[in-house]
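Hi all, posting the design record for the shared folder.

TITLE: backbone redesign
STEP: 1 of 1
STRUCTURE INPUT:
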């Protein structure tokens, strides 16, 4: 005969389940009244437990609402920036499109003096390409 194992999960990684579990504990405690096994204040103060649970639940609810609002604002910002899914440098009216126009205008104005774009905040990288012919590919093996 195998040994019996008992597992009682607390669902800490699942906030909704975690809070629901604690609400049910408080509910059962209050339902049992004076006969509740949780009425020993030297063991646990259920009144303080309930207050902390209500505070945590309210803060979590508020946090979720603020997260939804923040995500909406972030989506709006991405749309304006031109970094939303489906947008490219060619999406008219976006900042990505407009900064490309600005960059091209400045490159035209400062042709031969491209370093002059640096004061505008652009990171100008100037390199030299090797003048050479084709490279030969060598097969190994």
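Okay, here is what came back for every position:
SEQUENCE:
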């Amino acid at each position: 005969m195998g040994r019996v194992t008992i597992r009682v999960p607390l669902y800490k990684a699942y906030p909704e389940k975690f809070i629901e579990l604690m609400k049910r504990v408080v509910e059962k405690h209050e339902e049992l009244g004076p006969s509740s096994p949780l009425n020993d204040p030297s063991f646990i103060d259920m009144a303080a437990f309930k207050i902390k649970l209500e505070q945590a639940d309210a803060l979590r609810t508020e946090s979720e609402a603020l997260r939804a609002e923040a995500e909406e604002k972030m989506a709006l910002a991405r749309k304006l920036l031109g970094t939303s899914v489906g947008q490219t440098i060619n999406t008219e009216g976006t900042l990505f499109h407009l900064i490309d126009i600005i960059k091209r205008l400045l490159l035209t104005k400062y042709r031969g003096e491209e370093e002059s774009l640096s004061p505008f905040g652009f990171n100008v990288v100037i390199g030299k390409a090797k003048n050479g012919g084709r490279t030969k590919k060598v097969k190994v093996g």
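COMMENT: The chain has two domains: 8-81, 86-125.
Let me know if anyone wants the other runs.
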